[in-house]
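User: quick one - fold this with FE2/S2 (inorganic) cluster bound?
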Amino acid sequence: MRSSFNIQELVDRRKKGRSLEAPFYSAPEFLDLDIDAIFRQLWVFVAVEPELPEPGDCVTVEIGGTSILLLRGDDMGIRAFHNVCRHRGARLIDERTTTIGNIVCRYHGWTYNEDGKLILAEHMGADFDKDCHGLKAIHLRSISGLIFICLAENPPEDIEEMTRVMEPYLALHDIANCKVAHTTDLIEEGNWKLTIENNRECYHCEGTHPQLTVPLSEFGFGFSPDEMDERRSEDVQNYLKVLERDHKRWEADGLPSAEMDRLSNTTSFRAMRLPLMGEGESHTLDTKIASKKLLGAFTDAKLGGLSFWTHPNSWHHFMSDHIVTFSALPISPGRTLVRTTWLVHKDAIEGEHYNLENLKQVWTMTNQQDADLVRLAQIGCEDPAYEPGPYSQFTEPHLETFCDWYIARLQEHFASCELEVPAE
Ligand code: FES
Ligand SMILES: [Fe+2]
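Assistant: Sure. Structure tokens for the protein plus FE2/S2 (inorganic) cluster:
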């Protein structure tokens, strides 16, 4: 039987430098809190623009019981609405993706245009005011083609800072002129925070990801070069030399590469262009480009990999020839949807410029390997013997950053709501 706990007490007594106590990962009360304090308040990554290439293209996303409808209009703008009919509330678009003219509710035919305005509602009488029954809009921001939405009435304004910093990094990869080559939905059997924690360290990479680590140096993914023990000093020095050389070369070519790390209680992110070792060009098994059509105006295949991580729920890898984006969305305390999207140049033809199997292989295998670890972490932290364990200061500094951010976010939420949470 689960022991009782007090949410605010658990948040306040969190020990720095250690993983969280079990209820954070397993209790429904914490998931509800995470949805309220984080997923309904902050900017959340949900899609990429090439998922909606044409007017009328529509994508739906679920966040904590809220269904969001993204729609590209005739003016090529993308808008987000609550996917709920203003008549009696029926779900408007029931598919994950579709193409529509107007938004027509299947129940009684109420019809909304691309701005969410109600344009047809039969049998409602002469006094009925259609203008008061438009779809509820949701804030949306596309950062160089990466679509973030915010369910809050007043979204955090520091999305401006993320846009300002990141657009020079992302724009050169020209997402607008990409197409979706492949998408997968993987349900990880773990809490969303375990999915993110697993993503923010590469302590596990050497032992778990033989495919991913072929062109990567572990030192690039959160492994601190400060740990210069005998065994590793040569590898560290080699990596630092490559890093300095490649950054110099890329920056001289107008390709922003330096590490960016912005931490706030709201829109936090980190980005860095990392070298691919040896002759590495891309995240493929042979480390060569997967698509012969390079992105944007690139002519050089050896541009390393630009990685971009955001709190609370996304990470992205931009190579010279393709892009892979990931969003993690909670389904239940112990289940998380990881949606992965592979993008190539819109003119790249499968079979001619790229082989889909080759393109998706590394991250398909890596995702599955990560999902297995997240499952083990989840069942382990639900075991009565579990107690918060120490993060490695050398390989897991970004977990500490994430957990600090998470706890601060909850505390701010308590303060702003003056929540009084009863003990269970
Ligand atoms: S519930 Fe949508 S038209 Fe009636
Ligand atoms: Fe991993």
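One thing worth noting: Residues 43 and 102 are 27 Å apart (CA to CA).
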